[in-house]
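Sequence only, no structure available. Ideas?
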Amino acid sequence: MGLAAILNSYIQARHQFLAFALAPLMYNISVLVAILLFAKQYGIFAPAWGAVVGSGMQLLINVIFAWKEDFQYRPIISEWRTMLEAGKLLIPRVISLMGTQLALTIEIAVASTLGSGMIAAYYFADSLQNLPIALVGISIAIPAFTAMSSLHNKSEEKKSFDTLQRKLFQVLYIIMPITLISFFLAPLIVSTILESGAFGSDETALVSTILQIFALSFPFQAIIPLVSRYYFALQNTLYPLVFTLISIGINIALVYTITDTFSVFGLAIAYIASAITNSMLLILFLKKVSQFHINMKQTLSFFAPLLPLSFLSFSLSILYTSYQHTWISTSLSLGIFSIIILWAYFMLTQKQFKQLF
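Reply:
I predicted one. Tokens follow.
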């Protein structure tokens, strides 16, 4: 998987992103097939061997795409200065990932003390919230990083920042309707995907509440991959490391101070506080590293129409809660969804937003 990641970075640098989508897909398919076909015979070893085969397929896909892009491996010992420079940039990133993993371990440890089923509930809600962040935030950030790095290397700093700002508004434009839908229709989403067998209405209510808390931070979470990659394009990995460590510190502090009061919901609150802190620090320090700043007037004009939309969706969601599992709740959920989608279409027709796409 390490070799596959290296080759994939080369492929992305050549502005090719299909391998990035296919390789993890083949890995997951391999694991699922192993579970379905061999779990009864080999037990827990079935998904483990599925992961091994999937890793090989992931590497094979990247090798094929790298070969098409004329990749050739040649050991060059004389480029040790370049390797040292890369190492300096890599170390802060490694520390940042280690800190993130530490925070996750602490969250799971604390969740295990909160009662039966709390780890599972938190895990399910976290899995649901990761989907829109990956689909929107990471999907836009990866090709944007290649473009911003290329422009920076050509000393076209203004164009690089303009790319960031344009992609930033694209992320916000797509994630805001998803945020509203996830918040106001969380019970419907959770019950549709998870409610069956032992997973009943009580579990649905618990997971949907956690998901609603997570949804409050979707816009902030979605911009972190993009803005942090702008720092990386400027070969600045120190600032993202500092901001990540600060946000992790806030997360851990809140986990230990508010979970006694808010139970598993305290974990979600700590998580979104961490995400909001990280994203705001990344935005606020942009001017320090690039001499440019985000157009706040345009940002405010983007969020202004959300106020009446949010109020209307909130009113309908209250009615939905009162009439769950009836034809009225179905009609209300369709109404909320339709209103949000119509808002998204209306915004796309406005002149100031057409230029973002």
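The chain is about 85% helix and 0% strand.
Hope that gets you unstuck.
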